[in-house]
Amino acid sequence: MKNIITTCTRDCPGSCTIQVLLEQGTIKKLKGSGENPFTAGFLCPSTSNFLRNRFYSSHRILHPLKKVKGSWKRINWDEALDLAAKHLKETAEKYGSTSILYYQGFGARTALRILNLRFFNLMGGVSTLKGTLCGGTGQAGQEMDMGIRISHDPMDHLNSNCIIIWGRNPAHSDIHLWRILRKAQKKGSILVVIDPIKTTSAHQSDLFLQIKPGTDPYLGLALAKIFLQEEIQAEEFIKNNTHKFSKFKKLVDKYSLDELCRLCDLEIEDVSNLAGLYAQKPSSIIAGWGVHRYYQGHLSLRMMDALCAISGNLGISGGGVSQGFDELGFFDHKWAGNKLTTNQRKLSMPIIGEEILRAQKPPIKLIFLTAGNPLAMAPNSHKVKKAFKSVDYFIVADQILNDSSQEADLFLPTTTFLEEKDLVGSYGHNYISPLNPVLKPLGESRSELWIFQQLAKRLGFLKEMSGTPDEWIEKIAQPLSNQGINLEELQKKPMRVPQAPFTPYNDHKFFNDSGKFEFVNKIPILITKNEDYPFYLLSTIPQEWVGSEIPESEHKKGYLTVNIHPETMKNYQLQNGEMILLQSTISELKVEAYSSKNVRKDTILTYRGGWVKYNKGVNILTEDMVSKEGEGTPYYETRVRIKKLA
User: Fold this and answer.
1) 412-to-67, 155, 570 alpha-carbon distances in Å
2) Domain over 65-133+328-482 is classified CATH 3.30.70.1350
3) Rounded Cα distance, 392 and 382, in Å
4) Cα-Cα-Cα-Cα dihedral sign, residues 289, 293, 297, 300
5) Class of 2-55 per CATH?
6) Does domain 136-322+503-518 bear CATH number 3.40.980.10?
7) In terms of pTM, does the model score above 0.90?
């Protein structure tokens, strides 16, 4: 039995270090490795079951496929690569290279995948993506306040007297962070959860505030008002290190505390209690992704930052407002080759269907997709499908035939993190971790680097793309080497990035034009009534899978399930398990309704990542729009109504 250390690369903040147990050419088990003090020797259920649900799954495709008269036909790699190169070359020559869209998803974000964009820049530049389906909105808000978004090291929460978990459910979505928070709680820290849903994390907290969806900025303003009224404020810090405080104070004065609490649908007593707990410095706020899935979602983070600054929790150990990290920020991005061409066009990821359909001069004629499933994960699934089917040729590099890849003309089978050499960062902690190939690629699967190098050979620029994984890692990871990290040692175990601060902004230096913390000073109307569509639709991460990598068992189940408050169920005369129609302004979806006291009366809760072809794609209902700041995706602006079936 051999033990090999590697890392999970999927779209999750954990980036778990894995101990792989290999026996006679077969992987027997994946275990957590103690080499990373953050992931601390255990894995989430999804990664523990990765062998069954993905690596050795019967659904995994291990040979190239091409679409012939609507059906898949197995082909060899030479034919597949010749086809891909032919269509790329002909499309660029006929319509211009920006008629090609390269859609790089978040299913795997590693160092060597920076080279994917290099390939397309060497082609002359293509259409790529701007914005995100995930974290751009909140990050934009924090950048407005501090210039750069930097989170506290997760271990620093052990120094907090009070920890506010705001719009996040780490008990499901970030179990390693949850372990740290529970440890802090056992040491005496007070855990507070603010969420429209009474989540698993909320059930184990010391205080839970079930806020009205989308009103988080008002709660931040209410807490700030209490601090200012009671003169609990860091006067010296505000005077010397902040900008526009007087304008922020005028904003606070525009509202009464009663009005702000009413807007959030919270009791003044609970908000005052929270203010008292947070005043016990040091106190930290851990912001989730739920708080910024709104059009004005950046304001949630800005109000949290303002509260942190007023209270004196900014720049101190155990304080701060932390949401995430830049998992690719410590690599050298010059190797993406953006300076090789000025011929680039950016399409907005949150509204990618609309962007493709309306693109002109030139229109999008070919799509090349890696590590993503936009037909399931992007808003307005029907429009996205229409857009992807509108192009002349569609190439996918993936491992399974999901909602997106099943629509392709050419399917190129890719390796998993168990078959690759690479490095990976994390958006949940400050460690860079190794990918070590445990086995040779199964079947005919190949790495994305190999695929793009083979295509470069056919298109005449192999020299600019050539290099072994080790050679490219050495170039891309040069910033880490400059900080004293030995890359050879890094392939043996994860290492904390030396320059990553444990407690950011402790020198009170900020990275914006003023060099000071910038207070938010405007807040628009955040709540609009919609009597025709009275329910907020919230779609959260399930515990059983990551992104749209759903287990095989989920393929066989019936319909998407939704949770509805018991009183709402009674008002609509619904029974547990009853089939209903959920309708939004753009579509409708047949779902299975269940009663739950954990949801608000004005909210319907479901999970995200389900596939459209299995009647579980919630984004059929989601309206496509772009957030006001940060090019994010306001999933939670979608309202729905219930229609009983005859």
Assistant:
1) 12, 41, 50
2) no
3) 18
4) negative
5) mainly beta
6) no
7) yes
